[in-house]
C-alpha cells in the first residue's frame, strides 16, 4: 500500500484541479460584452431629431415678430457661448434685450440650406444660411463699410432635461455670396432667420438673426 499511496494522492489532487478549472471556465467572462453591466445607448432617431431642430431654427421669425424673450430664455442655454460676425462675444442677456426691444423686427430674412448633424440622442450641430433682404446690416472695418446680405451660422444643440438648447453659436458674414444667392424675399414677407448674431457694434444681436446697424 505504501507504494501506491503517493500515486493515489496525486490522482486525487490532479482530479480536483481539473474539476476546479472546468468549473471556472464555465463562469461568465467579466470582460465579455454580455457581462459588462453597460447598457448600450439606443440608436438616435435621426429623422425625428432633425425635424425638431429645424423647427426650432425656423421658429425665429415668430420669436422676432412677437418679441418673444421668453422663447429665447428657453432656447438659449444660460451658459451659451456666442460669437458674433464682428468677432465680439455675445451673451444671452443681450440677445433677450434686443429681441424684446424689437431691434430685429423690421428686416425680412430667410433661412436656407439647413443641415443637421446628429451626434447622438442628446447632441447635434446645425449649419444654416441666413439671407437678409434689406441694406441695414453692415460691417465697418477702418474707413470701409460693407453691407451684408448673407450669413453662415453654426449652432450646437444639447438636450437637457428633455429640452433642446443652443449651447454655442457662431455667425460668419458672407461678403461675397455666390451668384444667385441674393435674397428674394418680398417686402413684408415673413421669413425664417437663422441663429446668429450681429455684425455691428451699435447693438448686440440676438441669437437667431444678424443685427442691423
Could you explain how this protein is built, in words?
With 213 residues, the protein is α+β, with helices and mostly antiparallel strands. It folds into two domains: 5-35; 46-173, Roll (Nuclear Transport Factor 2, Chain: A). 26% of the residues lie in helices and 28% in strands. It is built from five helices and seven strands. It has helices at residues 5-25, 46-57, 60-65, 69-75, 92-100; strands at 76-83, 109-120, 123-132, 138-141, 144-147, 150-160, 163-173. The strands form two sheets. It has a five-stranded mixed sheet. The chain has a two-stranded antiparallel sheet with strand order 4-5.
Describe the structure using short key phrases.
213 residues, alpha+beta, Nuclear Transport Factor 2, Chain: A, 2 domains, five-stranded mixed β-sheet, two-stranded antiparallel sheet, 7 strands, 26% helix, globular
Write the SSE topology.
Blueprint: H1 5-25, H2 46-57, H3 60-65, H4 69-75, E1 76-83, H5 92-100, E2 109-120, E3 123-132, E4 138-141, E5 144-147, E6 150-160, E7 163-173
Parallel strand pairs: 1-7
Antiparallel strand pairs: 2-3, 3-6, 4-5, 6-7
Helix pairs in contact: 4-5
Rg calculated over all Cα atoms: 30 Å
Number of helices: 5
State which percent range the strand residues make up. 25-35%
- The count of domains is 2
**Coarse structural class:** alpha+beta
**Biggest sheet character:** 5 strands, mixed
The whole-number mean of residue pLDDT values reads 75
Mind telling me which CATH architecture of the largest domain this is? Roll
Q: Tell me, what's the shape?
A: globular
Order of helices and strands: HHHHEHEEEEEE
The N- to C-terminal Cα distance equals 109 Å
What is the name of the CATH class of the largest domain? Alpha Beta
- How many runs of DSSP E, i.e. beta strands? 7
Low-confidence stretches: 1-5, 8-14, 185-205
